[in-house]
Write a structure and sequence with these properties.
Helix 1 packs across helix 3. The protein is of the alpha+beta class and 206 residues long. Helix 4 links the parallel strand 5 and strand 6.
Length: 206
């Protein structure tokens, strides 16, 4: 008799709760995307660095609002968890971080992130990666998180390493960019890996 392996995260754990917001250091916050953020998504598709490494589709304000609505739906479907990185002083979204390829049964997900020029500097992506990682592993209950990036993108490599995502290897010719196929670094963190100093966000409200 074959004993079925239970899901790592029971179905419904995400769908039964609202997507949380998190305060970050440096006057930043992670919050769900809103329709009013549509112009930020439009701008992201025009930024050369974001286009180079993230391959976004061109958006209009209307299609951006549709995309934001789909992200909300994908949370309730337990298929993805996408946050805006915003400035607390004016609530302006300046970037995105989230978990795609979300597999609750298998206990894994992959990071995606970008920042507009107005949000760069000050470790925003690192702080956001650490906060989402703690939520995903310690609160949601996932077991393994991945970060993959082109070997030509050292900034993403530094984020992954500083967030404690071990470099597991290089995936050859793994992703097609505008200038051709790129080798990709694969980094991962699993439940129980030690956290870098400062990753507990002591003193910050949720």
């Amino acid at each position: 008799m074959i004993t079925p392996i239970p899901p790592v995260v029971p179905p419904g754990r995400m769908a039964r709760q609202q997507q949380p917001s998190f305060v970050l250091p440096g006057g930043r916050e992670l919050r769900p995307w809103r329709e009013s953020d549509a112009n930020v998504l439009v701008a992201s598709c025009l930024d050369p660095d974001i286009v180079r490494w993230n391959r976004p589709e061109a958006l209009t304000p209307d299609t951006a609002r549709e995309k934001i609505a789909r992200w909300g739906q994908r949370w309730t479907e337990e298929a993805a968890a996408i946050w805006a990185i915003s400035r607390r002083e004016d609530d302006q979204a300046v970037g995105l971080i989230g978990l795609g390829d979300l597999d609750l049964r298998g206990g894994s997900a992959e990071f995606l992130y970008w920042l507009l020029p107005s949000g760069r500097g000050g470790g925003a992506v690192l702080d956001a990666t650490l906060r989402v990682s703690r939520w995903a592993l310690e609160e949601l209950g996932l077991h393994r998180l991945r970060i993959s990036h082109s070997v030509g993108n050292p900034a993403s490599c530094r984020v992954a390493q500083r967030a404690g995502f071990a470099l597991e290897g290089t995936m050859r010719s793994a992703l097609l960019h505008a200038d051709g196929w790129h080798d990709e670094h694969l980094h991962a963190r699993v439940a129980g890996d030690p956290w870098p100093d400062g990753a507990d966000f002591n003193g910050l409200p949720y």
